[in-house]
Structure formats: structure tokens, C-alpha cells
Design a protein that fits this description.
mainly alpha, 8 helices, 72% helix
């Protein structure tokens, strides 16, 4: 992949979920348009990451942990974005899941890979649980900082346990030869 491809994939991963959320919710201008520095930082980080591939492979477990934190943080951001628009609780949760997982989904699609979020680990479920927890504690008046910390700890723990124990949702497949069954 050339530098343009690297920057495109990095940008889709980092800001894709929030962009899809904002487009669906009609929240304009998009966050990265309001703050173009996010796009610049993402592109620089993407190019820099090409020099770190050996480290990424060597320290895969560290990157899984950092990704888990990012997933929960993006889920909180998505929940709050919809809450700030005064949207229904179910929309706030959907916004959280979109924010948390669509960047990776877009990355996989751009790279021609089967999206991991659709068939592998518990990932979207973590975003869902984190959003529900955050929203519930907000509803019951829990201080925002306390709410955020508890949600991050619970969401991170849930993701790490799911990775360690290889938890999966049931997978459904359509067989090509349906008449044989």
C-alpha cells in the first residue's frame, strides 16, 4: 500500500465511525471538518505506523488492550453525541455502536477483508454494553467523571475477558446446497 492508501485506511479507521454516525444523525459539519487537525494527526500516525509493523506484531496484546480502551471511549463519545442532540435512548446506543465499530468495518472493507466485527470476537457487543451502562448511570444522576471511569473499566474488562476466553456470538451460515438438507 502506498502512503495515500495508508493515510486513507488510517483515516477510515480513526474517524470513520464518528463520520458515519454524524452523517446518519444529520450532525454537520463532521467532527474532522470542524477539527481538521484530527485528520492531519491520523494521517501522520498512519504513515508512522508503517515503520512500526514489527513492533505491532511483537506487542499484539498491548495493541489489543489499547484498542479495547479506544472502543469503549468511542462508544461513550457516540452515546454522548446522540444524547446532546436530545435523541431517544435506543438511538444513543446505536450511535455508540456505530462510532465504536464502523471505523474498523470501513478499514476491513477498504482492504478487501471480511469485516472482523461481523464474524469474529465480541466487539460490537462491548460497545453496546458500554453505551447501555453509560446511559443508565447518566439517567440515575451519576457524576460524569465517575460514570466515564466506571464505563471504561467495565467495558475494557468485558472486552479483555471476551478475548481471553474467546467468547463469540452464534454464527449463522447459509449453505450453497440448501436442497441437500
Amino acid at each position: 500500500m502506498d502512503w495515500f492508501g495508508v493515510m486513507l485506511v488510517a483515516s477510515a479507521t480513526a474517524i470513520g465511525g464518528g463520520s458515519v454516525r454524524d452523517i446518519l444523525l444529520g450532525n454537520f459539519p463532521l467532527t474532522w471538518v470542524k477539527h481538521p487537525e484530527y485528520l492531519v494527526i491520523t494521517c501522520i500516525a498512519g504513515v508512522m505506523s508503517t515503520k512500526m509493523t514489527r513492533w505491532i506484531v511483537k506487542y499484539k496484546s498491548l495493541f489489543i488492550k489499547l484498542d479495547a480502551i479506544g472502543l469503549v471511549v468511542f462508544s461513550i463519545i457516540g452515546t454522548k453525541a446522540a444524547m446532546n442532540m436530545g435523541l431517544a435512548p435506543i438511538i444513543c446506543v446505536v450511535a455508540a455502536v456505530i462510532t465504536g465499530v464502523f471505523g474498523g468495518l470501513l478499514r476491513d472493507l477498504i482492504c478487501g477483508q471480511k469485516p472482523l466485527v461481523l464474524h469474529e470476537e465480541l466487539y460490537a457487543s462491548v460497545a453496546l454494553v458500554a453505551s447501555l451502562l453509560y446511559f443508565a448511570m447518566y439517567h440515575f444522576g451519576v457524576d460524569e467523571m465517575v460514570n466515564t471511569v466506571i464505563t471504561i473499566v467495565v467495558g475494557y474488562s468485558f472486552r479483555m475477558i471476551a478475548v481471553k476466553r474467546a467468547w463469540r456470538l452464534p454464527v449463522y451460515a447459509i449453505h450453497d446446497d440448501v436442497s441437500a438438507h
